[in-house]
Amino acid sequence: MSTLLSTVTVRVPGSTSNCGAGFDTLGLALQIYNQVTLTRVDGDAPRPVTAADGRAQAMVETSAAAFFAAARIRPFGFSYQITGDVPPARGLGSSVTVIGGVLGGLNALSGVSLSGHQLVAIATAIEGHPDNAAAGILGGFCVARCDATTGAYVDTVRVELPEELAFVATSPDVEMLTKESRGVLPATLPYFDAVKSINSTAYLVAAMVSGEYERLRHSVTDYMHEPYRLPRIPGGRSAITAGVAAGAYTGWLSGSGSTVLCVAPKSVAGEVARAMQAAFTEAGLTSTARVLSADNTGLTVE
Ligand SMILES: Nc1ncnc2c1ncn2[C@@H]1O[C@H](COP(=O)(O)OP(=O)(O)OP(=O)(O)O)[C@@H](O)[C@H]1O
Ligand SMILES: N[C@@H](CCO)C(=O)O
């Protein structure tokens, strides 16, 4: 007879998404993590352990309801605590660390064992897009596909990336909620803005998959979301330009911001980080630069 767990800790990586013009499609897991600990308690509602955890209450309630519905089991009560290094509301997939942590935790506590792709499908429905959900749960560089009519998650093609490829994520000390940042996007795009964005995205994906990272140089030209979002982040555009001038292959606005990220050979990553931070300082913002490698593991139950 199997005994059900009463407490579990789930580790979920942060992630960068869009990766230029791959809006709502490309996601890449990074070696920066949050841990979400769930413990069974009486009742049928989620309870935050600390006041800071309570900021995620609505997200945790939605995730729990979606899990219990998908698993077709009776809801049970649990407490949750979120720890780790992924900064909230900075474009590094913090919401998926919370949503994924709750889904993975309930999966383990209930013994239901939904698959990784099933968890991505639930997280995609909650987030409204699959990019961070696929990367955070499955790990690696992910190209995620949704049904064109319903928007429901269909599948992800993922590749693993080597330790030597550095992702310099520089976060100004400004929170940017995805919901608000999506609100500044236009309803329609000029046709050739879409064409130029497709050209850049297809080439970037091919370079990532082939492992010919030198070919990433200057590959990102995004007309899908950066022109509308970057002007709201003082120093954001200059930080990418400075990172590339310091030796990075290319760079992009990470998710919906406020983090900007450059991809670089590890040998020049320190120089790239200094250049990016200097651009934010010049614009009057303090920032944190993190030199990260890709995470190829995704969500793990500890
Ligand atoms: N450590 C945390 N503690 C509590 N709540 C958190 C934590 N991290 C994230 N959250 C929840 O996630 C929200 C931020 O999600 P949002 O989608 O706006 O940003 P993000 O996921 O960091 O960025 P992006 O989706 O662009 O990568 C917070 O407002 C909070 O509800
Ligand atoms: N694709 C999403 C990622 C952030 O959650 C966006 O850019 O709004």
Characterization of this structure:
With 302 residues, the protein is an alpha+beta fold. The protein has two domains: 7-160 and 296-301, Ribosomal Protein S5, domain 2, CATH 3.30.230.10; 165-292, GHMP kinase, C-terminal domain (Alpha-Beta Plaits, 2-Layer Sandwich), CATH 3.30.70. 35% of the residues lie in helices and 25% in strands. The chain has nine helices and eleven strands. It has helices at 57-71, 94-110, 116-127, 131-138, 178-182, 191-210, 226-229, 236-245, 269-282; strands at residues 7-17, 26-41, 46-48, 77-84, 141-146, 153-159, 165-172, 250-253, 260-265, 287-292, 300-301. The structure holds adenosine-5'-triphosphate (ATP) and L-homoserine. The site of L-homoserine has 12 residues, from α4 and α5.
Shape, principal axes of CA atoms: globular
Which cofactor or ligand species appear?
A: adenosine-5'-triphosphate, L-homoserine
Strand content: 25-35%
CATH class of the largest domain: Alpha Beta
Task: Give the biggest beta sheet.
Answer: 7 strands, mixed
What is the chain-wise order of helices and strands? EEEHEHHHEEEHHHHEEHEE
